[in-house]
Amino acid sequence: MHRLHTDRVRLGYGERIIIDDLSLEIPDKKITTIIGSNGCGKSTLLKALTRIISHQSGAIMLDGKSILKENTRLLARKMAILPQTNEIPVGLTVGELVSYGRFPYQKGFGRLNQSDLDAIDRALEKTGTAEFKYESVDSLSGGQRQRVWIAMALAQETEIIFLDEPTTYLDMAHQLEVLELLQQLNKEEGRTIVMVLHDLNQAARFADYIIALKNGKIVRSGSSEEVISHEVLKEVFQIDAVVEKDPRTNKPICITYNLIKGE
Predict the structure, then answer these.
(1) Distance between CA atoms of 6 and 48, rounded to whole angstroms?
(2) Contact (Cβ atoms closer than 8 angstroms) between residue 101 and residue 154
């Protein structure tokens, strides 16, 4: 049984429907990546799965219970989300930002107890950001900041982490660094990772399960070998792709592609 699944979900904004009649399952303790062209519903789906927006009909179930009926603090102890853009108050230190992950566990005046402090330090160590604990977040590089945001999610101590395009605006080395960190969290701690990625080769390399969306519908879902194929990429992105096997990972890799016109 999958802890998180949807049943015939409809999502949209007002009368504008983005996703309709969508049923899917998120594999437990695996890395799931959602791919698709701009506007296909990837981020909308992520927001609905984490209750940032409400679904109009159907059901989103976590541990056999509708997420709409779950207590907010209890839900925040089960899942964390890193949105596409993050705003940081000027002058906030790394340690202060990571401490926000402890909000679901705080009572009264929100003072941090020893358990909170230990969770913060573990998250900083795990993400390699402990040396920046007392530095201002806005003084860090893009890759360092992203690791700090992930540290905040780790401090929340959830079993499921959602990320919306976590490699955006990062150079190739920092993209790889972030994705390898997420893979490590999955392999070593059994965290369920769900993320939206634009880079197909990154999705193929790091995901155990891929969901390909087009116009709010699932075109194909499954392993990278099942989804990253000439036929699927043609349908989802309207490209004529050459897909081979990566000699280092044995995963599919898109070598080159042309835009298909007139179809």
Answers:
(1) 10
(2) yes
Q: Binning pLDDT at 50, 70 and 90, where does residue 86 land?
A: confident
List the one residue out of 112, 216, 195, 203 whose CA is nearest residue 146. 195
Question: Which of 172-183 are b and which e, b meaning 16 or more Cβ less than 10 Å from the residue's Cβ?
Answer: eebbbbbbebbb
Q: Hey, what long-range contacts does 220-226 have (CB within 8 A, 24 or more apart)?
A: 221/24, 224/251, 224/252, 225/251, 225/252
pLDDT higher than threshold 80 for residue 87: no
Question: What is the rounded radius of gyration, in angstroms, for the C-alpha atoms of the chain?
Answer: 19
Alpha carbon 201 to its chain's center: 16
pTM for the structure as a whole: 0.93
Rounded Cα–Cα distance for residues 35 and 7 (Å):
20
Longest pairwise C-alpha distance within the chain: 63
> At which residue do the structure tokens 């096997």 appear?
245
Q: CA 224, CA 204: separation in Å to the nearest integer? A: 5
With vertex at residue 218, the alpha carbon angle to CA 7 and CA 55, rounded to the nearest 5 degrees, is 40
Structure tokens of 167?
């490699």
Angstrom distance (rounded) from CA 110 to CA 91:
21
CA 195 to chain CA centroid, Å, is: 3
Q: Whose CA is closest to 79, among 46, 111, 55, 106?
A: 46
Shortest CA distance to 161 belongs to which of 26, 15, 17? Answer: 26
Tokens of 232: 């699927």
pLDDT band at residue 96 under the 50/70/90 scheme: very high
Q: Can you read off the two tokens belonging to residue 256?
A: 């080159």
